[in-house]
Amino acid sequence: MMKGRRKTSRTGGGSVTYVNEIQTALKFIEKNLCECISLDSVAESVGFSKYHFHRTFQSEVGIPLYDYIRKRRLASASTLLLNTDISILEIAIKHQFESQEAFTRAFKSIYNLPPGRYRKLMKNLITGGFNMSKNAKIEGWIFSGASPQKYQLCLDEKVFNMGTKSACIKSIADDCANGDFATIMQQFNATNFLGKRVKFSAFVKTHDVNDDAWCGLWMRMDDVSGNMIGFDNMQNRTIKGTTEWNHYFNVLDVPDNTTVINIGMLLSGKGQAWLDNVSFQVVDYKTPTTSIHSGFPDFPINLFFEENKE
After folding, report:
1. Hey, what domains does the chain have and what are their CATH numbers?
2. Greatest mean pLDDT range, 6-15, 78-87, 125-134
3. Among 48, 123, 195, 259, which one is most buried in terms of CB atoms within 10 A?
């Protein structure tokens, strides 16, 4: 049973989801990554019982809470190994590992190397993270947009949610303005998903996405003629400012006449955005869609004009 029920966000179909609560919880985790974090404390930050929150977190994010916290701590530790001279023991203790041995075991399980060897080997491989001379080519992904020449795409080896790198889009032109945008995207055959409901999700982090700019995940369904038959770009829930890693998603139905599914992250205007830990999956019809065509009432209302808001 939930404690102190909080206001939840609503998406298409009138169903209640826990988008706001999950994002609040992830912000709490990022803020306290180097502190002791318990299931109770994270659940309390969103007003849920720990049992309800544990199930909700795994359902929404796709990974158990403690596994997520552990992987985020290891990712944070790996950046300190590469970019500082802090001792391995200090890094282990800072990230709430009880000993250097426990940290080494956990680190090796993710990065396939003990932390000391990882530090020695990887420091020599990294050439500064963001390469401003040319755009990175990322297998399976396309870099495009209205003004891609005003942006830089890279594989960032210093900033990532989990693992060892993330994709990053950064504005590089002084005249980059509203209407200019770039995107990292994929296109794939819709055959395996026809008639199903799908969810494209990822972790996104932003820096200095100013008032006239915005960032968001997007997903689009196209028919054989290239006409759009389903779309969501988060424009009604944009990511702005400087934000830590958080979880975002699009959910759409795949009509039977869909031929191509498109997914990606876009940055419009000035700023910088990172994309990591991407997921694409089929979900059940209890999961509400985020389509831009959603949000309409199920039936016509106020047909006699008698219902007026005060």
Report:
1. 12-123 (1.10.10.60), 142-283 (2.60.120.260)
2. 78-87
3. 48
